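Prompt: For my understanding, could you write out one protein's sequence and backbone structure tokens?
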Amino acid sequence: MFNSNNIFLVAEQVLRANSIDSKVKLSHEAVRLWENQMLNLDASITSKRMMRFDSPKRPYLVHPSKLPNRSVATDEGLAAFIHAITHIEFSAINLAWDAIYRYRNLPSSYYRDWVKVAKEETNHFQILNQRLNELNHTYGDFDAHSGLWDMAEKTAHNFLHRMAVIPRGLEARGLDVTPALINRLRSVGEQRTVGILNLILEDEIGHVAIGDRWFRYACDKQGCNPESSYREIVGSYTRSHIKGPFNVEARIKAGFSRQELEELDSSLN
């Protein structure tokens, strides 16, 4: 399935997969190889790092403003709502493998962490897509946007920025908004998907914690203060992700301090 036993070339092959099924299968196989200690971390044999990879033909990607607002009280609206979350999880598969592919010569525990994230994001995607199937839809039936991957490209040049903006910024914002999403689903009796989102929320706390750990690692290497650097870095990309309201309990579990959250919110008021 892979033409290499090098984790960077394997990650590149996962990223290059331009069909939904092949990406999922390759992601699972790459995880299996890593877990069985069959991949090496030799950065010297790898190819030039690519910036953009082909996307599946569906879903069709549009600007976020072009995505219609639908009520989850309708069958179509509920499916579109779940599809939007499914798209986030599909994008997160790419983000996890790109975190492995793009950054080299880091401790082996870094790659272990991000393989774990890739495994869980792939599982999340499959669970949500199965729920879509139960609603007579599948991933790709609705339009989506490329905002997550766009931000990955913007931070590709800088490991410190990537760890700040993607896991500690965008994914941490996911911790903030998920309880409201769960409440919307509960309001229409969609308990099946509520259970899925509760599972995902717990896993995502761990993913943000991994980003927090490696962000602090990068700060230590560069001799910068994590909290002030975080405000400056994330604020330079998108101020909305360092402004409350926050899911304080989840963010604290993921590595934020209560004082930092208070300072983040107050710094923009």
Q: What stands out?
A: The mean pLDDT is 94. The radius of gyration is 18 Å. The CA atoms of residues 165 and 237 lie 8 Å apart.
